[in-house]
């Protein structure tokens, strides 16, 4: 079992930055691929980014490439999402999630554990 708790969301103006954190419980954090998803009102939950077990490999949605950076600290059982050059269309609830294999990264149904989400609002 892995419990995930996100933090760092808030209200920011367009062009600003936020850093999300996701703290995980348990001793097996390094065995999980970690991902970030987001869900805007009335829309599906969309893939944002994923990072491999040791943090060497990453994957991003096209909409955030060059603006967002995912990273992890296995010693602290934490995964981060640095978000720069934020746009109003980035407004959503952001969720972190965990899965074992490095496959089907874009499919939320393939993730085993989820946090409760943190709200990010970008004003124009």
Structural commentary:
With 124 residues, the protein is mainly β. Helices cover 0% and strands 48% of the residues. Strands 2, 4, 5, 6, 9, 10 and 11 form a seven-stranded mixed sheet that branches. A four-stranded antiparallel sheet has the order 1-3-8-7, with no helix packed on it. A hairpin with a 6-residue loop joins strand 5 (45-51) and strand 6 (58-60). It is globular.
Identify the overall geometry.
Answer: globular
Q: Structural class, please? A: mainly beta
Which percent band covers the strand fraction?
over 45%
Element-level helix/strand string: EEEEEEEEEEE
| Main sheet characteristics | 7 strands, mixed
Separation of termini?
40 Å
Based on CA atoms alone, the radius of gyration comes out at: 13 Å
Count of helical regions: 0
Summarize the structure.
The chain has 124 residues and is an all-beta fold. The protein has strands at residues 4-7, 10-13, 18-24, 33-39, 45-51, 58-60, 68-73, 78-83, 92-99, 113-114, 118-123.
What is the fold's blueprint, element by element?
Blueprint lengths: L3 E4 L2 E4 L4 E7 L8 E7 L5 E7 L6 E3 L7 E6 L4 E6 L8 E8 L13 E2 L3 E6 L1
Parallel strand pairs: 2-11
Antiparallel strand pairs: 1-3, 3-8, 4-5, 4-9, 5-6, 7-8, 9-10, 9-11
